Amino acid sequence: MKELDIIRALAALAQEVRLRVFRALVVAGNSGMTPSAISEQLDVPATALSFHLKALGHAQLISQERRGRNLIYRAAFATIDELMAYLTENCCEGESCLSPQAASRKCK
């Protein structure tokens, strides 16, 4: 990931509603969520949610798929892995900062 992409992703997450939306999509996994489900779960008005989903999409933190009449949003797990790898690349003087179990875990 380029440094500009990292900055864009972190900036997108540095807002309360977007962070909550992102975390809800991470929990939803590959099933994803419709905007109405996100809105209902997080109690965010649909008009505001659309703005936040656009910002998360621009930062490549989420993906969107049309399924019939519905849009399905999912966390972009490959981007999350790249972001985490970038942030922890040189931590702990070259030693692993994570337990072996955590270090072997990848987003799916």
Average residue-wise pLDDT: 90
Written as H for each helix and E for each strand, in order along the chain, the element string is: HHHHEEHH
Characterize the overall form. Answer: elongated
Strand order of the largest sheet: 1-2
- Helix share bin: 55-70%
Number of spatially distinct domains? 1
Q: Termini separation (Å)?
A: 18 Å
How many distinct beta strands?
2
Q: How many helical elements?
A: 6
CATH topology: Arc Repressor Mutant, subunit A
Report the biggest beta sheet as strand number plus sense, adding barrel if it closes: 2 strands, antiparallel
So, the CATH homologous superfamily? Winged helix-like DNA-binding domain superfamily/Winged helix DNA-binding domain
Enumerate the spans where pLDDT stays under 50 for 5 or more consecutive residues. none
Class from helix and strand fractions: mainly alpha
CATH class annotation? Mainly Alpha
* Gyration radius, rounded: 15 Å
Just name the CATH architecture.
Orthogonal Bundle
Strand content: 5-15%
Q: Could you explain how this protein is built, in words?
A:
It is a single chain. With 108 residues, the protein is mainly alpha-helical. It has a single domain, classed as Arc Repressor Mutant, subunit A (Orthogonal Bundle), CATH 1.10.10. Strands 1-2 form a two-stranded antiparallel ribbon. The longest helix has 13 residues. The protein is elongated, with a radius of gyration of 15 Å.
Which terms would index this structure?
mainly alpha; 6 helices; two-stranded antiparallel ribbon; single chain; 108 residues; 57% helix
